[in-house]
Amino acid sequence: MVAKENLLSIPDLNLSGRIEIMDAVQLDKYEKALGLFVESVQTEGTKIKTALEKWDYDSLAASLSAVCEKLEEIFAEDLAEECRKHIGKLKKTKHDRIEAYVKYFLACATALSSDIKIIASVSPSPSEEKEDDDDSFLDTKSAPAPASASARFDKTILAVDDAPLFLTMLKTIVQETPYKIVCLNSGAAALRYLEQNRPDLFILDIEMPIMSGIELAEKIRAIGQTAPIIFMTGNATEQDVVKAIKAGASDYVVKPIDKMLVLEKIFRFI
Question: The whole model's pTM is what?
Fold first, then answer.
């Protein structure tokens, strides 16, 4: 079951004052609504793009309305309300303006869908929960364990990403390891931290403003930091991979991040 506090971290969902009072049955129903929204972004998104290309405003309105219904069911009313205003003006608006808004709306809906999938991927499922309260953090059948229990908390991971949500997700994931994680939101902050510290692993977002993850990696290597670097990216092209390798990458993860994949890579490099 998805953790309520994780869902509250998604800014497009107006859940404050709502999710706190949900019981298990209501939360389960809400989770299903989230899943249906994610599916609608995929299915209706294709229809929306096709209708836009054909200038078929009736089909476009129908598909946009279908996504709006799912947005309202998951309490993303702000996105839905704005979209419905544009739906009412489709036949009175120039096509280039319609196209610009629809692309913006799809980008917002896709981003929300990605946030939901990320939250779902890091939330513990009933099968992952331990019945006995022991000192183990991982199901060893699904992820490799660290080489030595004596290494607990003497290894540090530095994560740098300008998106707070992804840092929150990484914190949740690393809580299931015997390692410490330091989260920073810019390359400049990371370089200041590295003046006095030597992490054992870097997890860097590629697409960051001012200083990209690749630029940060180059600076990390230039100051003599040799720990492995894992890049995170939402747009992993062949060119990105080549640049990442040249900058010193050991591996990369494509967003939305998968919990078990990230754990596997952490244990591989520490």
Answer: 0.50
